[in-house]
Design goal:
By secondary structure, the protein is α/β, with parallel strands linked by helices. The protein contains 15 helices and 7 strands. It folds into 3 domains: 47 residues, no CATH class; 62 residues, no CATH class; 234 residues, Ribonuclease H-like superfamily/Ribonuclease H (Nucleotidyltransferase, domain 5). 49% of the residues lie in helices and 10% in strands. The strands form 2 sheets. It has a 5-stranded mixed beta sheet with strand order 3-2-1-4-5, sandwiched between helices. Strands 6-7 form a two-stranded antiparallel sheet.
């Protein structure tokens, strides 16, 4: 018995080799025999042509970066806190070497070899396929100070500034309301080498902010020469100004309502603090100590193992800007390469770097973050129970 498959196989070569008139005759005959729509017959001939045994089963290069290699890439990506492909590519080799050194690398030799051969474009494509979740935006607590005249405005250029000149900002952990007391984070980002230092404090009083700046100054491995905040009242005051004068730190500020004047630190607010702590309200004073412990670990992780890029050229073309970035590097490598930083500082950092492991640091950071939210959750439950006990009881009667 002749089937539809036999009919198409019999006329396939004639259809492919025939001219327009011959193809029309074949289509008329096949449509009449197999009782199919003309377009359906054309699509069937096309499908058979692509599966012709005379042609290779699949054209193009075979899949080289197989599932095991992609899984190895995802391990590095998660260890690096899910950064983009451009930043991830430059640190893959170092991550693999450290994890192999500490016997924490669980992937085979073939997958590892292919992972180390990946180009930046391939890493970007593969990372782009991993799951990403966008987080909601938060609120701003910045209020202009009335003493702006005592701090001079500086809008650049920043390219000529040596290491030690950084931008500072505060970030509020308020959730959906700015009412009441809560935790704040102070963020210092060095412009020349992108070194990050963080400190948590209760509210944003002048004394609390000055203590956070003192703590940051002690943690930064090189001398701080200048600090550049926005116009927030926590920075623009005599307490912070006098402290900077005593420490020989130049204090400048950005223009009101010009966030791009503090672009370096504003970017780190989202890429660092919001990435790890999110937008949850933190209004328990006991959390501050845990947050600072977590920030100490986070600084080591970010500065030694998370790369970043700097914009080295910005050209306006019509109504748009074309930007050119340098090669992605960790702040640690930028410090080692910068000629203005003392050799003793670099040697101390090298010794510290040899003892660190990004995966171990990441796990310690995750544990401390979990602890922060557990303490906050306990506080929220106590407040809810207290409010519930104060509310008047409601009695429901079943009598008619």
């Amino acid at each position: 018995m002749t089937t539809k498959k036999d009919i198409f196989a019999r006329y396939l070569n004639q259809y492919l080799q025939g001219n327009k008139q011959r193809k029309g005759e074949i289509l008329d005959h096949v449509c009449d025999v197999v009782t199919m729509h003309r377009k359906a017959v054309i699509r069937k001939f096309r499908a058979l042509q692509m599966r012709d045994p005379a042609l290779p089963p699949k054209r193009g290069r075979k899949t080289y970066y197989t599932a095991d290699c992609v899984y190895a890439l995802k391990t590095v990506w998660e260890t690096a806190s899910e950064i983009c492909g451009e930043l991830l590519h430059s640190i893959i080799v170092e991550y693999v070497e450290i994890l192999q050194r500490d016997k924490m690398w669980q992937h085979g030799n073939e997958a590892t070899k292919k992972l180390l051969e990946m180009s930046e474009a391939t890493v970007k494509r593969r990372v782009g396929g991993f799951m990403k979740v966008r987080k909601p935006r938060g609120l701003s607590s910045t209020k202009p100070s009335h003493l702006k005249e005592i701090i001079p405005i500086f809008i650049g250029p920043w390219e000529d500034k040596p290491p030690g000149y950084g931008q500072i900002d505060t970030l509020v952990h308020c959730g959906i309301s700015l009412a009441g007391d809560m935790a704040y984070s102070v963020n210092y980002t060095d412009v020349a080498v992108l070194w990050v230092s963080l400190s948590a404090q209760w509210n944003k009083g002048q004394r609390a902010t000055q203590k956070s700046l003192s703590r940051i100054k002690e943690k930064v491995p090189f001398k701080i020469l200048g600090m550049h905040p926005d116009t927030g009242s926590e920075f623009i005051n005599y307490v912070v100004k006098d402290w900077c004068d005593d420490e020989n730190i130049e204090l400048t500020r950005s223009r009101p309502y010009h966030k791009n004047d503090n672009a370096y630190v504003e970017q780190k607010n989202g890429h660092v603090i919001r990435r790890f702590l999110g937008y949850t309200r933190l209004d328990n004073r006991e959390i501050i100590e845990i947050m600072n412990e977590m920030y100490d670990k986070l600084e080591l992780y970010l500065n030694h193992f998370v790369s970043s890029r700097k914009c080295i050229e910005k050209v306006r073309i019509g109504s748009k800007y074309k930007r050119k970035y340098d090669k992605a590097k960790t702040p640690y490598k930028r410090v080692l390469e910068h000629p203005a930083i003392e050799r003793s500082v670099k040697q101390k950092l090298i010794k510290e770097h040899k003892k660190l492991n990004p995966l171990i640091l990441k796990r310690e950071i995750d544990k401390l973050i979990t602890k922060v939210f557990e303490v906050q959750k306990t506080t929220a439950n106590l407040v809810f129970e207290e409010d519930l006990s104060k509310s008047p009881s409601v009695t429901v009667s079943n009598e008619l």
